[in-house]
Design a protein that fits this description.
The complex is a heterodimer.
Chain A (H helix, E strand, L loop, with lengths): L20 H14 L8 H13 L4 E3 L2 E2 L2 E3 L7 E11 L9 E9 L4 H15 L2 H9 L3 H12 L6
Parallel strand pairs in A: 2-5, 3-5
Antiparallel strand pairs in A: 1-2, 4-5
Chain B lengths: L5 E7 L8 H12 L4 E6 L2 E4 L3 H5 L8 E7 L3 H13 L6
Classes of the chains: A alpha/beta, B alpha+beta.
Chain lengths: 158, 93
Amino acid sequence: MKFADFICCDAIRAHLEAADKEGAIREMVTALVDAKRVDADEFESIVKAILKREELGSTGIGRGVAVPHTKHPSVDRLIGTVAVSPTGVDFASLDGESVHLFFLLISPPDRPGDHLRALENISRQLRDDAFCRFLKQAKTPEEVGQLLEEADNHQFGS
Amino acid sequence: MMSESAASRTVIVTNRAGLHARAAVLLAKAAGGFDARVLVSKGPQQVDATDVLQLMSLVAEQGDSLQLEASGPEARQAVDALEDLFLRKFDED
């Protein structure tokens, strides 16, 4: 699976303003609503579902990265967005460090395999330090989109 | 002299979501808590159990069989603890 298969380019954000977990999640889901990828009526329900999953344990996976996600019946295929927080968000991560890079995923309830394959793609690409660093330094959504495209075209690491 | 011990075990992924981000974080946290080096493999792919990114790159789905291999003074305890997480379905479902 490639980033292009699930990342909605017009919902990428390079400057998250929130400093806390809930605020950051709200900004990212808002971006998906603005990009017309999720229905505005489903906004609160999706945000609540993502926060509820976070309560079971943070999706802050270390290295300044988090992958908040949920299953939700309002989507018929896996969708996601990427956001960069220049100041960092306290996400109760594995390594205690604040999060600068987010991959938010929403998948249909009965497609756990797609979710895993998206995570595989994200984790494989992030193992390349240069890719991870460039993404965190990206200043515009276009720059983020370009980096994802380069990763899809195997221009980073393995 | 303290002898290096080793332990291994086969576990099955039983939670519906598979080894997704949160499950990988729980596994990595648990693996890091022991004086042992723990490897997880799925078929020919073998990764460090303390590395979340490597764990997620396994794409371990429900029903998949994984091999845990540990070495070091607390190898057995580490394998026991990790197996327990799989048996508890990472407290999901």
